[in-house]
Amino acid sequence: QVELAESGGGLVQPGGSLRLSCAASGRLFSINVMGWYRQAPGKQRELVATLTSGHNQNYADSVKGRFTISRDNAKNTVNLQMNNLKPEDTAVYYCNAIVVMNTDFLAYDYWGQGTQVTVSS
Question: In the chain, fewer beta carbons within 10 Å around the N or the C end?
């Protein structure tokens, strides 16, 4: 089993910044992809940004130039620096990891509990 622990959400004014962090723990061998998704009220969950172990990044068009994803492979952590936040960024943000387990060396998809980000004046 793998657990993803998220931190860093909160309330911020438009134009402000927040940094989300996520740490993976458990019986994992490696993590292929780590990333962030978000879900606003009444909407489907959508990709925000992902980062592979080979440092390939993928961003939603709506956050390009404002958000930066980074990870520490040795510590199994992923961060999301969010700048110039807008009200439309308000959502619950979920950490995601595609993990290779050290029990069977198969890949599994794990999700964090989510952290609320609210952008409002």
Answer: C
Q: Residue 98 corresponds to which tokens in the numbers above? A: 């595609």
The two three-digit tokens of residue 58, written as one number: 């993928």
The DSSP bridge partners found for residue 25 are 3
Q: Which residue has the tokens 């520490």?
A: 72
Spacing of C-alpha 35 from chain mean position: 4
The burial class, CB within 10 Å (0-12 / 13-18 / 19+), for 68 is middle
Structure confidence at residue 90 as a pLDDT band (50, 70, 90)? very high
**Residue of 117, 112, 87, 91 lying closest to 38 (CA atoms):** 91
Residue pair 119/10 in contact (Cβ under 8 Å)? The answer is no
Looking at the chain, the whole-number percentage of residues with pLDDT higher than 70 is 100
The secondary element (H helix, E strand) that includes residue 62 is none
